[in-house]
Structures
1.
Amino acid sequence: MSHLSLEVSLQREMQGASPIIVTSEGNTAGREVEERSQCIIQGLKRLPQCHFSTVQVSDRYLDSILQQIHHQEYLGFLAHWNRALVGEELLFEYPYVDQGIQPDTPLFAGVYDLSREGARTAIAAAQQVVKGASLSYALCRPPGHHAGPAWLGGYCFLNNAVAAVVTLQESGISPVGLIDIDFHFGNGSAAILASRPDVWFGSIHRSTILSYPYKEVQPASDRQTFIPFSHSPSSEEYLSAVDELIKKALDFGCGAMVVSVGYDIIINDPHGGWHLQPSIFEEIGHILAQASIPLCLVQEGGYLLTALDECAYKFGSGLLGCDQK
Ligand SMILES: [Zn+2]
């Protein structure tokens, strides 16, 4: 199926400077910055089939979705520190972490406001699918797939991809699939979806022993498929894993699919470690498009600023069925 257009949902602008999100290691390379989104937009703008719109989702609807994903107490904790921290203050100590791992991502002033805009963007992209788009893309930040029912970590505070899944479900689409192709395992998405019987979840990632969240993980049920790599996969190995996940999602009967997109699988990403080239995304896009079901792409990681433009351009080209060769 050749998709005619890609509807891109742009995050609402925040007041003042966009915060730079670091980890407790204080990493200078690979910080989570607003510039990431700008680079991705540049890549997508090279494709005339991309239509850009700024999101419009009410606070009321946003809250109704977030309350289905995260515990109330956790949302209250984020809301509290959102205002209690001021200026450059960071909070490194808190109890809301995934089992067996240490806090790695500090809270900052406005953390809840910014994270809510990310989730709002993902919801808006899902609503584009509900309205009939076959291809939509949420350019949200910070990423979300490490955020669990009541925990944050790895730059993630609210789970944007699951917010998109729930939005699709609310419109009556069932079952829904979530495929996570970020370099890192979406421990938050897997945990939240474990209790949702009508969602299929698949992930391709670097071994969770070798990379975040640095612990062993197991699928919660036969509705979850994990494909970890301990070595840097060849493009053939990687693409056949993508193919396998899509077949399983379609076998499950998914009527639409959310894709957690991470550009950190490519060579030289500061948080990565594999040797795949940006051009892999054209092939990934082709394979995803062949599923012939509506796709809602949600931005997760990808921190090599000089490559994000090309990754996004290749991905869009593959999804749209453009012949770039
Ligand atoms: Zn990642």
2.
Amino acid sequence: MSKWRCNVCGYVYEGEKPPAECPICGVGPEEFSSVGETTVATARPIPAKRWKCTVCDYVHVGETPPDVCPLCGAGSDAFVLLSDDAQSLTAEAIAAAGLGTARSALNKVSYGLYIITSVNAGQLNGQCCNTAFQLTDQPTRLAVCLNKENLTHEYIMASAVFAISMLSTNQLDMVRHFGYQSGRNVNKFKDIEYIAGKNGCPILKNGVAYVEGTILPEKSVDVGTHTLFIGDVTAGRMIVDEDPLTYHLYRENRAK
Ligand SMILES: Cc1cc2nc3c(=O)[nH]c(=O)nc-3n(C[C@H](O)[C@H](O)[C@H](O)COP(=O)(O)O)c2cc1C
């Protein structure tokens, strides 16, 4: 059996001829060079179990399902085990598991990580989100994309006000608290230290900064499962001049 190495990403394939497409980086057979007959690992040693998110079909490879689906935010209980038989995956299985696809590439998009909160008829709620970003400076306008199933979405639709707390790097517990459970099942603010913003939305006391805002319903967009809310900032300040938590940092440390 011959061995072929991808000139672009280094992936090694075993077969009589190079594969039609590199399962890691997608280049064609012309980018593969023969590396002889010696024994070379044909696939990176990756865990064998594959877990499928029943909400969005994302496939995670690992010994256990992820704490949260990186695509749709569903919890680990939304994952079902697809297979547990292989010790190391073939090129075809790697491609099937999504490692060589656009979905895995999207894991490399950088995001911040925030707690967005709202208030509705005196009730407080909030959720974790990575999809908040500034749109314009004048006016100070931003966007955030929220799942329509979320209680926070319901509150923001009803009251059109929100606050966004930027987390500090030691607040992974807040990600779990606000991101892994719904306010439909638990009062998330019961034991949380917060202050009320000018618009009534709760702001985390130990974050690094916050903004408050008002939604512009006519500019917000229905994007299917989610609403892309557009809002103008009405207040805000830096609480402490420290680095904020990022989505990347969370992914690196979430198991700890
Ligand atoms: C790291 C992380 C990022 C998340 N980002 C988003 C997001 O941008 N939009 C969204 O709708 N849900 C996101 N979620 C999922 C929600 O935080 C989660 O579904 C939450 O339980 C909803 O709470 P609620 O029903 O009380 O509003 C994220 C979760 C985590 C852990």
3.
Amino acid sequence: MSQAPRQLKLGAFLMATGHHVAAWRHPDVPANAGLDFKHYKHLAQVAERARFDTLFVADSVAAATGDIASRMARSDHFEPLTLLSALSAVTEHIGLISTVTTSYNEPYHVARKFASLDHLSGGRAGWNLVTSDAAAEAQNFGRDEHIGHAERYSRAREFHRVVTGLWDSWADDAFTRDKASGQYYDPAKLHVLNHSGDHFKVKGPLNVARSPQGRPVIVQAGSSETGRELAAQTAEVVFTAQTSLANAQAFYSDLKGRLAKFGRTPDSLKIMPGVFVVVGETEALARQKFEAFQALVEPEVGVALLGRMLGNFDLSGYPLNGPLPELPLTDSGQQSRQKLLTELAGRENLSLAELGRKIAGGRGHYSLIGTPVQIADQLQEWFEQGAADGFNVLVPHLPGGLEDFADYIVPELQRRGLFRTEYEGSTLRENLGLEKSANQFV
Ligand SMILES: Cc1cc2nc3c(=O)[nH]c(=O)nc-3n(C[C@H](O)[C@H](O)[C@H](O)COP(=O)(O)O)c2cc1C
């Protein structure tokens, strides 16, 4: 039997007004997008029409505040699980991946909400399992200090075990709901978790039947050594920031190479680097489009974003035209992103303000600015040269940037046979080419 050709996977990474830090000030962008359901409904439908695999929403459980934060559109937005639940009712095929932190949550709540979303959407839910990278969250959850990096990962590992255990509480056919006999569920098909560990004590079972996908898809975004180990053991999709083909290839082969020791095949984990895309009919027009956003970046805003991405550092006391100061390894933020941005500053010899400006759009993700053909060439190269199974797409502004990607890049990828023209299945797992998860207790 001939195998279908391998095709790339696409995620639409939605962020209120767009990923560019100054997008909200652009005349084409609705500044109130973060709390406008019609805006998100339109984005979801554009992405679904273009046959994207999934929507992807990031999160933080703290509002950005302060002088500089008051100049960015990052302080008010929908909570992602309720947003995606609402979007599940106005879409039919597209996956719904929500970021939910393991650092400031309880696994029972998380298992229940995702199982519920999986039922609501007919099997389209995915959980981006993160360890919070925003230090400010701690103070909203009874702590003065953020949980440290190693401890966050230790908690995340156990959190995952509990959530997946709860998702497997019931056999697929446990709920007989037989009116004639009066049996609502078969007690022999129930497993009570009785988990007791370092961080959690959870009896179970879950009060939601096993969901259409068995388990919602597990996504992860940590790329440090500890993050990679956890991903290799537990993730089915990894979202990562990579700055060059060579770095992306090294990450891809490193992570895929770790799977065998957990009894997994390379195909069971899809690696989707983020890619920031600005498209125009000509390269000059694409650059012009990008520059219209860059012109709106205040240097202090770029540097504040940089400080946050480097791992929650306040860089406001350093000269804008000076070099990036030497910083200790972040314990509260993303170690992988800190490394990436520090290397970028060194490689290109950038001042603080220049680096802030450079990442104002894609926050360090690979950036492509050009024509549909130029952009498709790059995506194809990464896909075919062992750097990616697909991409999580970041656009500068919404809805325009996503409409551009759907109208210009997707058809070019389809013309090359690199992307689907119809959804393969009805669940996110089926579309991503992942197997339905077996129940560990049945
Ligand atoms: C591409 C990417 C996106 C991420 N998105 C989020 C997010 O939305 N919310 C969050 O709290 N953490 C987010 N994280 C942080 C990760 O969850 C990660 O567990 C943590 O920062 C440690 O990263 P490290 O393993 O690279 O040090 C993201 C990380 C990466 C690399």
